[in-house]
Write a structure and sequence with these properties.
By secondary structure, the chain is α+β, with helices and mostly antiparallel strands. Helix content is 50%, strand content 11%. Strands 4, 5, 6, 7 and 8 form a five-stranded antiparallel sheet that branches. Strands 1-2 form a two-stranded antiparallel ribbon. A two-stranded antiparallel ribbon has the order 3-9. The N terminus is likely disordered.
């Protein structure tokens, strides 16, 4: 019951049975383990030994076909039409990136198309001119049959014919994944929520399809929604060797295995409608692809599309043929727009949360500053008392005398009516007015240090005592003035009597 992806060293009869039906032709009767590594036996055609690259994909929007060449498989996979309608080939030179040489059947097809559009001989009268115009209209539309001769079958007009007018050239992003990354895309005909809820069961099913070998681990790289309730799942397989090392199975190797008939049917039972290897194009492949216009695309338009490419290093021109292709691309763009909007909403929520956290943090910082100020004052008071006790019994030193003079100067400046004391009185008046009219908001509270409040009260008390003293002096002066006035009034009649 050995399970091999290639041929192993040794000779013997071919294994008629296996755990998975075999991934290639083996020449041994038993194998100790499942292996993705290159076989040591030559002449094998197994999947994970010396294999042919049967497919090429550009990711989700780069392949809906399972062809072996880029000609028609990539065309429909790109979602923008085909890069050719020629027979698919497995060789690079004649089928993968280039159009094959024209066969006699293709030459006859071109001749018949030209006859149907320009000079049909079906009726033999002036009605053939009307038929030619009708055939031209069908060719421009890309559908219908063109009758031109009673003895020759009509020409089938498709959207790939060079006269079809509903064509355009767009651009798609080229993948940048290496073959060693092992990324293979599976498109499921199921919703993303169903895939995510049953992701573990999906991984186990894929592991069983790979034979259930314990040395293999199926990993999901990403899940993305696609139009028409489809979901793209990117997977890769890790193979662990007995010595403890591990490696990823190459993407082309894993894709070739999925393209086998029995494996493909198993994937279809899981809901897989498309599988492709997500690998990058080599510079030679890109060059050859750009040199050959897709079938039905005017070479002049293709050359202009290459010139107008906004980013030739990352984007590649692809044809869009027909309204269905345009609608499919519109759906993909709408889906991506929704994903971008969802991501923007998430970012907006994160920013709002950060702003709330910033406001809370700023409030805490202000509170900690007030606490620091209070602790600083308390520490200063402790230091003052400690210094007084330490210096008790000692004579005042010169530097202490200078400090005392400076403090007296500062105290005089503070007690000056036109300096800080006046400003402080003004502030106290404003605070009383705000408290009286309720202008202070509930969330804004002002705190005054207890020592400062005590000093303010002491200062105000001294001011009150000074004003009381001034009032008493003024009253005494007024009494003295009244007494003087009374004495003057009494002395005036006495002097008048003496002089008389």
């Amino acid at each position: 019951m050995a399970f091999n992806f290639g041929a192993t060293a040794g000779a013997g009869a071919a294994n008629p049975t296996g755990a998975f039906g075999g991934f290639g032709t083996t020449t041994t009767t038993a194998a100790p383990a499942f292996s993705f590594s290159a076989p040591t036996n030559t002449g094998t055609s197994g999947l994970f030994g010396a294999t042919q690259n049967k497919g090429f994909g550009f990711g989700t929007s780069f392949g809906t076909g399972t062809g072996t060449g880029l000609g028609s498989g990539l065309g429909t996979g790109l979602g923008f039409g085909g890069f050719g309608t020629q027979q698919q080939q497995t060789t690079l030179g004649s089928g993968l990136f280039s159009q094959p040489a024209q066969t006699p059947a293709q030459s006859n097809q071109l001749i018949n198309t030209a006859s149907a559009l320009s000079a049909p001989t079906l009726l033999g009268d002036e009605r053939d001119a009307i038929l030619a115009k009708w055939n031209q209209l069908q060719a421009f539309w890309g559908t219908g049959k063109g009758y031109f001769n009673n003895n020759i079958a009509p020409v089938e007009f498709t959207q790939e014919n060079p006269f079809c007018r509903f064509k355009a050239v767009g651009y798609s992003l080229m993948p940048n994944n290496k073959d060693e990354d092992g990324f293979v895309v599976l498109v499921f005909n199921r919703k993303e929520t169903d895939i995510r809820s049953q992701q573990q069961q999906l991984v186990e099913s894929l592991h069983k399809i790979l034979g259930g070998n314990q040395t293999l681990t199926v990993n999901v790289e990403g899940v993305k929604t696609m139009p028409d309730d489809q979901t793209e799942v990117i997977i890769y397989v890790v193979e662990r060797s007995p010595n403890g090392t591990s490696r990823r199975v190459p993407a082309t190797t894993l894709y070739a295995h999925f393209e086998q008939a029995n494996i493909k049917s198993s994937l279809q039972q899981l809901g897989v409608t498309l599988s492709m290897a997500r690998t990058e194009l080599s510079p030679a492949q890109v060059k050859q692809l750009l040199q050959n216009p897709p079938a039905g695309v005017d070479p002049i338009i293709w050359e202009q599309a290459k010139v107008d490419n906004p980013d030739p290093d990352k984007l590649i021109p692809v044809p869009m043929v027909g309204f269905k292709e345009l609608l499919r691309r519109l759906k993909v763009q709408d889906q991506m727009t929704k994903q971008h909007q969802t991501r923007l909403d998430i970012i907006s929520e994160d920013i709002s949360e950060l702003q709330k956290n910033q406001t809370t943090t700023m409030a805490k910082i202000a509170q900690y500053k007030r606490k620091l100020m209070a602790l600083s004052h308390r520490t200063l008071q402790v230091l003052i008392k400690q210094e007084i006790q330490r210096k008790s019994g000692y004579a005042i030193q010169a530097d202490e005398e200078q400090l005392r003079v400076q403090l007296d100067t500062i105290q005089c400046e503070l007690n000056a009516p036109t300096q800080f004391k006046g400003r402080l009185n003004e502030l106290m008046s404003q605070i009383r007015m705000q408290n009286h009219f309720g202008a202070v908001r509930a969330e804004e509270r002002y705190y005054i240090d207890a020592d400062l409040l005590r000093e303010i009260k002491q200062h105000l008390k001294q001011q009150q005592e000074g004003l009381s003293h001034l009032i008493s002096i003024i009253k005494d002066d007024l009494e003295d003035i009244k007494l003087i006035e009374h004495g003057l009034n009494e002395s005036i009649p006495i002097r008048g009597g003496v002089f008389s």
